[in-house]
Amino acid sequence: MSGSTVAAEPGRSVLALPASVNPPSKGRVLRIAGGVYQVDTGADILDCTLRGRLKQGDEQVVTGDHVLLEPLPDGSCRIDGLMPRTSKISRRAVAGSREQTIVANVDQLAAVLAFDRPTPDLRLLDRFLVLAELNGLGAFIVLNKLDLAESAQQGEFDAYTAAGYEVLPTSAKRGEGVDALRKRLVERATVFAGPSGVGKSSLLNLLLPDGELLKVREVSRKLGRGRHTTVGSTFFRLPEGGYVVDTPGLQHLALWQIRPDELAGAFPEFRPAIGSCRFSDCRHLEEPDCAVRGLLASGEASDSRYASFASLLQEAREAYG
Ligand code: GDP
Ligand code: ZN
Question: How far is CA 101 from the centre of its chain?
């Protein structure tokens, strides 16, 4: 789809405009594979190369970046500049290691789980929500496989609603809840995070034009073939505007880079209590008169969310030593 051509109507002579008359000057990186950057210019999706100096800089061009394009004589384009980012998900820096940005300019994170098959992994869900909070992204929860839901599960996610997270039940199998999900995605870039098997691909197939998911996955596979590239994240353009972002391996993203003392603030329902503990350096573990644990007694925070907090805190403390 590179370059632009003007087709002559039969019986009428049309002077084809050279591609340089109105070359794209900006775009957004949808995916990167084998040194090829696929860039959405709004009108087109172009395969671009990267200008040499951008390969060495502190900030690497990543999926989701808004970039400046320079047309090349052969009709293709080269990425010539990187525009400022509004957000990013990164492996967060620890002393002595460089921060590594994984994806840029995403607006929100959809944590996708299934009611059953697989059983909801609430530790993983909380991990994703913490990841979103620490990266300044809004988050909501998609509970797929509504057709497999037991009535006993209705209350299982009340703690999340109470904490301010919207919970959207869907069934990709029956098409239920998909319109509500579609509305939640319009004009935003949404990371779909979730373990495999919960139905992310099935939902994407319903959200994207027919065959698009397969086509994009095939293109990425071809572009990356034979090179030592791991599959990175991919932006899928939604017909209504906006993008769904597939970020493989997000569930394995270590959160050990969190500062232990900033973890409690990543649980919205804990926030009102932070600062009210007896000890100003309270870790919210065994300390007496801990206001955060007080939320458990009053039912304002759930035992399950607190269990996630305690386990992530352990992880963070081990990493920080
Ligand atoms: P992904 O690994 O998250 O991309 O999950 P897939 O979309 O590949 O789905 C995993 C399995 O769950 C497949 O066998 C799907 O057919 C099935 N599945 C997906 N959505 C639903 C649903 O809403 N209900 C039921 N019962 N099965 C579903
Ligand atoms: Zn405390």
Answer: 12
Ligand 1 atom closest to Cα of residue 144: 23
Would the CB of 197 count as within 6 Å of ligand 1?
A: yes
Ligand 1 pocket mutation pick from 202, 234, 236 by most atoms within 8 angstroms of CB: 202
pLDDT-derived band at 272, boundaries 50, 70, 90? very high
- Among all bound ligands, the one having the nearest atom to the CA of 194 is 1
Per-residue pLDDT band at 11 (split at 50, 70, 90): very low
Torsion sign (Cα): 202, 125, 180, 173: positive
Give the separation between CA 293 and CA 163, rounded to whole angstroms: 15
Residue 24 has pLDDT above 70, yes or no: yes
Distance, in Å, from the CA atom of 208 to the CA atom of 205, rounded to the nearest integer, reads: 5
Report the run of H or E that residue 50 belongs to, with start and end.
strand 45-50
pLDDT over threshold 90, residue 99: no
Average pLDDT over residues 282-289: 96
Q: In angstroms, what is the span from residue 139 Cα to ligand 2's centroid? A: 25
pTM reported for the whole predicted model: 0.88
Q: Compute the residue count for the chain.
A: 321
How many angstroms is it from 49 CA to the middle of ligand 2?
Answer: 51
